[in-house]
Design a protein that fits this description.
5-stranded parallel sheet
């Protein structure tokens, strides 16, 4: 027994023997018959061993159903040896016609599903009493062996996993927010999930190899799979529709949402505030499954309750105020990741070079450090970033190969630094957050030109130009005429008229392109 395969897991394995009868399979005979017929029709001629492999259904059930299909004139044996596993079945014209009608209603062909009742019972057994966890020190050590620094962040991550409560991670770009959250599933025990569920004759897909990593040991019944705790990552591409379970008519399955795929693991909403839909709507959609550990999906209009016992994680490089109190209660633990120090970034750079199996001259690491060291100490004074360390290491590899060198030297590093866009921007003392912004140009008509000019300068005006009885001021795109009028009136400046005369990208963009 171990942390990843404890006594409870062993008992579930014992319970998940492969069913040998239709009664134990808990699927209707008509569903199984239709599934077999669709497979034979799809192949034209197929061995029983192939049907067994596709569906995961025991030989005893195959030996009962397939001969009945043959007696009904829907298929016929066309070859094979003495063993039933070598027998070949071919579809008949009658069978093909029947299969066509079945496919129109339900085109699913694949692993036999698990009954909804079995799914719910097995999930209940696993999720009940899952928290608090006692995570072995060896598991913690292995989880964070490649994480440099941020001891305080590791503690919060561990405690979030112990009690199964959400966590909010925020801080500047490149500080390792996504990376550190991605370690959380390694701290959680595995679980067993069905590949597919049957409800009302329809198929709900649960297992997704993109997010679910199989464990070495697997239950006898191939319809179930033991997986490591899942890590489901969604980012700026997320919208409300993707948080719903939607029917795929080509596959004949209901494809579950990230909410359900993350059951037993971590659901990370990355880059919060940059989603296509309003992040408030997305957070509101998550409240019920976060609170109740259950979500509702609809199969042919019928509501079906499914497990959604995930630990929510939210990360952003925006301000913490992006989440209100109601949402923060669902993620009560928080981590502020500040920019790392020079030695930490240097160490991550070294580790990335070694992970890439790159040889490098000794002075390369010291030169890389100089990029971030204080100007007074002979450095460039750039802002340290873990993301820089990873990216520059990869660019160094590309430059070395392109120059046909056997080792990364100072020349290679210098060229890599010149090709990293964020380093170039910092060297130009340009704030990347400004590049994507637009400016609004206002014409402010007033007799108090001097006072208005000073007030606008204090307000953060980018450019001020004088006309006969007006000022032209460029301000951030979020400033409206109403906001500007209100501000100037509070400064006791008499305003005759304010109008927006232009909106444009900042001149800064052309400066970068011309660098």
């Amino acid at each position: 027994m171990s942390y990843y395969h404890d006594y409870k897991m062993e008992k579930i394995f014992e319970a998940l023997e492969q069913p040998k009868t239709i009664e134990n399979l808990q699927l209707s005979e008509s569903f199984i018959t239709d599934l077999f017929l669709k497979i034979v029709a799809g192949y034209g001629t197929v061995k029983t061993s192939t049907i067994n492999e596709i569906t995961g259904i025991h030989w005893d059930i195959l030996e009962r159903i397939l001969p009945e299909l043959e007696k009904s004139g829907l298929c016929a044996t066309v070859g094979g040896g003495f063993l039933f596993s070598s027998v070949e079945y071919s579809i008949t014209p009658k069978g093909r016609e029947k299969a066509r009608g079945i496919n129109e209603d339900n085109p699913y062909i694949g692993m036999a599903p698990v009954s909804y009742e079995d799914y719910y019972e097995i999930m209940d057994v696993q999720m009940k009493g899952r928290y608090p966890l006692k995570i072995p020190s060896k598991v913690v050590e292995n989880t964070f062996k490649d994480v440099v620094g941020i001891a305080y962040a590791k503690e919060s991550i561990i405690e979030s996993c112990i009690i199964g409560k959400g966590i909010f991670v925020y801080g500047p770009p490149g500080t390792g927010k996504t990376f550190v959250v991605s370690k959380m599933p390694d701290l959680l025990p595995p679980l067993i999930i069905p590949k597919f569920i049957e409800f009302g004759g329809r198929i709900i897909q649960i297992y997704d190899s993109s997010f679910h990593k199989k464990c070495e040991e697997q239950p006898e019944d191939p319809r179930w799979v033991k997986i490591f705790a899942p890590f489901v990552l969604t980012g700026a591409e997320l919208n409300l529709n993707k948080l719903e379970t939607n029917y795929n008519p080509n596959k004949g399955v209901y494809e579950t949402s990230p909410i359900i795929k993350a059951n037993g693991g971590i659901l990370l909403i990355d880059d919060l505030g940059r989603q296509r839909d309003d992040h408030e709507l997305i957070l509101n959609r998550l409240i019920v499954p976060m609170e109740n550990n259950k979500d509702m999906i609809y199969v042919r209009g019928i509501p079906v309750v499914v497990h959604s016992h995930f630990i929510p994680a939210f990360s952003t490089n925006l301000d913490i105020s992006i989440m209100d109190e109601a949402h923060l209660r669902r993620a009560p633990l928080h981590i502020f990741l500040k920019n790392p120090d020079v030695e930490e970034v240097k160490e991550v750079f070294r580790r990335n070079l070694e992970q890439l199996q790159e040889d490098y001259e000794k002075d390369v690491l010291d030169r890389f450090s100089k990029v971030y060291e204080n100007i007074n100490e002979g450095g460039e004074g750039l802002q340290p970033s873990f993301a820089h360390a990873r990216d520059v290491a990869q660019i160094c590899q590309a430059v070395r190969i392109n120059k046909d060198k056997n080792i990364i030297d100072i020349e290679v590093l210098e060229e890599a630094l010149e090709k990293h866009v964020l380093i170039v921007l910092q060297r130009m003392r340009i704030d990347i957050s400004q590049i994507a912004n637009k400016t609004r140009s206002f014409r402010i008509k007033t007799q108090d030109l001097e006072a208005a000019s000073q007030a606008l300068s204090d307000f953060g005006s980018i450019v001020i130009a004088n006309e006969k009885d007006s000022l032209i001021a460029d301000l951030e795109e979020n400033i409206t005429p109403v906001v500007l009028v209100d501000y100037l009136k509070k400064k006791n400046i008499d305003i005759k008229k304010i109008e927006v005369i232009a909106e444009s990208e900042k001149e800064l963009r052309r400066t970068i392109l011309g660098w």
